Amino acid sequence: MTDEGNQSAGITFVHLGFSEHPPLQAPLFLVFSAIYTVTVLGNLGMIVIIRVSPTLHTPMYFFLSNLSFLDFCYSSALTPKLLEILVVDTKTISYMGCMMQFFFGCSLVITEMFMLAVMAYDRLVAVCNPLLYTVAMSRKLCALLVAASYTWGGMCSLTITYSLLGLFFCGSNTINHFGCGYSAILSLACSDPYFSQMMCFIISTFNEACSLLIILSSYVFIVVTVVKMPSTGGCRKAFSTCASHLTAITIFHGTILLLFCLPTSISSWLLIKVATVFYTIVIPMLNPLIYSLRNNDVKEAARRLINTKLFSHAM
User: Fold this and answer.
1) Are residues 139 and 105 in contact, defined by beta-carbon separation less than 8 angstroms?
2) How far apart are CA 60 and CA 234, in angstroms?
3) What is the rounded distance in angstroms from the CA atom of residue 263 to the CA atom of residue 89?
4) What is the DSSP letter of 280?
5) SS3 of 225, please?
6) Model confidence over 150-168: pLDDT tens digits?
7) Do 127 and 222 contact (CB within 8 A), yes or no?
8) Angstrom distance (rounded) from CA 25 to CA 28
9) DSSP code of 268?
10) Global confidence as pTM
11) Domains of the chain
């Protein structure tokens, strides 16, 4: 890292957030607070239900509990700062605080990207080879796939964050965003950002292409297998196990591709903020709802857990 880059460590960034719309500050705080509360309760509740219910101790729900953990962590890495920005007059964040927020946010996004790909592979094995499902998706393999997703996400995020740490910030310290996103940080750099841009482009493109390739390939094989099934009941059951996962994938990757395609011009910053709000706050809330409302096993396990608690209190 250059001396110029080291001098940037003393900078304090100022978040604009949604300050250009003062009447919306209080309503947005209430809405985002409610969403964050539902996100925390939903994802932690999903983890608890899966952990205490023996019927949910399968590879599918092991991956789902990790997805819930990622959504909880990702939302918690960004939402509290957003809520603070909406209510305080001094909307600042330190240089290292900004870099740490970016690192954790980026790491969790990439990890979730591959966690969804792993879940697609899990559905492939479950549908195409149901008799050997528990053997093929052994506990060791599941742990290895999850560990690989976390490790790869951390490595990619560390590489991009390191490229940002090498930049020199000398001009405006105002971030036209509510979080330390890559484009928002890069727009403040005075030094040449070419290396950082290339690293981010290569890593982002590679990860998005690889994860989508795994997902699409898995579902092509799933569709071919389902079409060959002799009974309509088997087809319906196979598709029902994949419906929640497909919904989560569509929302997650659809928002990523939208943000990837949006220009970073001044006129598009509001749209970027809105899309980022959906991506960082709404999606982590939706995932536990999608998997609980569309999944009879989860609903039944939750019902049994609630009834057990009520019975124990009645005694």
Assistant:
1) no
2) 19
3) 29
4) I
5) helix
6) 999 999 999 999 999 988 8
7) yes
8) 5
9) G
10) 0.90
11) 12-309 (1.20.1070.10)
